[in-house]
Amino acid sequence: MRTVSLGVARRTALAAQGFADPRPTGPATRRHLQRVLSRVQLIQLDSVNVAVRAHYAPLFARLGAYDHALIDDAAWTHSAKRPRLVVEYWAHEASLVPVEDWPLLHSGAKRQGWWRHYGSLADASPSLVDDVLAVVKELGPVGAGTIEKEVAGASRRMPGAWWERSEVKKICEWLFGMGQLTTGTRRGFERLYDLTERVVPPEVLGRHVDAAQGARELIARSATALGIATEPDLRDYYRLGPQQSRQAVAELVEDGTLEPVRVQGWQQPAYRHVAAKTPRAVTGRALLCPFDPLIWERDRTERLFGFRYRIEIYVPQPQRVHGYYVFPFLLDGELVARVDLKADRAAGVLRVPGAFAEADADRSRVTAELAGELALMAQWLGLDGVAVGERGDLATPLRKVVG
Question: What contacts 392, CB < 8 A, 6 or more positions away?
Fold first, then answer.
């Protein structure tokens, strides 16, 4: 087993995630989107819209300013000329995944998620399941609210806390988790359910994959996306179970897909995908949202970059260290700063309540590069400019640069 330096591991990981690829010099196209998908494999969804929806941000980090319709059309529209590229399912969390990966996620390699708790309701109310499917078949793509109105007696609520979903919504989510329903399209960020057979092509739905093969293929995709990683890193990408993951890793080592390596400073052994590239240098800059696949596994982020990162959305405001929705700033292969961001659409500005440099960062260069990327983000979001607040050691110099 050979040993690689932390710098080599970092550059390998960055290249695997697409940060060694140049941004397009012109408008981003489907070809650019497909290149990013071939790197990251999946894009996480999240409802928070403080700065920008989570599924838009990783593409901005890798492609620069692009038309939001690029991912919208790929995910939520379909035609013979421009077929759907990605479909929604629970992968890492709620995610957009390539359509052809659907059988892997339903192979039995992944454990059932939180929706399994609604199985008892489905078992006790088979007629409700049938009614929901019938409404979706007739009206889909359709929202849960409309389904509730169409299903007799569906307006009653289950006892519990205020956030308890209605029985119909629970059945919709159970059917989504079981793969009988998926997202046909979205209205705003509202999921409109449709029958999976009307969204996923029959040749994909008809592909049978057993659990062992599914685990191997998902771990191989994890390794493609991560470049070099520990077994728990590989497992976390698609949220597989430990037993399935370890067996898959062992089999991929045996067939030569993964190479066991030691990374200096890491306590656990690592695995490098044999096709992973290690550039001599990684240049460029990017703002990374909290759900970017480069950094969503916080322990790995700290091991790779020496950068301790926590999302503070659920931390009471007086106890937050850096802010509510903080984007780490990547510059030439290092995480050098972090900025709290908010798109103030009413005022037409991208607000930066706080900006913080890492201890060993070149503050002058970081400030200039960060100002440029913030200006690009504001333009991409259709905002008129950037407004920097008072918090953090970068706030004052950044405010001077952005005006």
Answer: 322, 354, 355, 356, 357
Residue-by-residue DSSP string for 245-294 = HHHHHHHHHHTTSEEEEEETT-SS-EEEETT----S----EEE--TT-TT
Question: CB within 8 A of 69, min separation 6: which ones?
Answer: none
| DSSP conformation class of 296 | S
Q: Per residue in 85-95, pLDDT tens?
A: 999 999 999 99
Q: What are phi and psi of 279, to 5 degrees?
A: -70, 155
Q: Which of 270, 282, 284 is nearest to 226 (CA)?
A: 270
* Residues in contact with 390: Cβ distance below 8 Å, sequence separation at least 6, in sequence order: 353
DSSP-assigned states of every residue in 225-244:
HHSEEEHHHHHHHHT--HHH
Distance, CA of 214 to CA of 203 (rounded, Å): 17
pTM of the model: 0.93
Nearest-CA neighbor of 345 among 382, 373, 380, 290? 382
Percent of the chain residues topping a pLDDT of 90? 87
- Residues near 133 by beta carbon (within 8 Å), at least 6 away in sequence: 175, 180, 181, 195
Q: What letter would DSSP give residue 353?
A: E
Question: Which ranges constitute the DSSP H helices of 4-124?
Answer: 6-16, 30-40, 57-63, 69-76, 102-105, 119-124
Token pair of 210, please? 């057993």
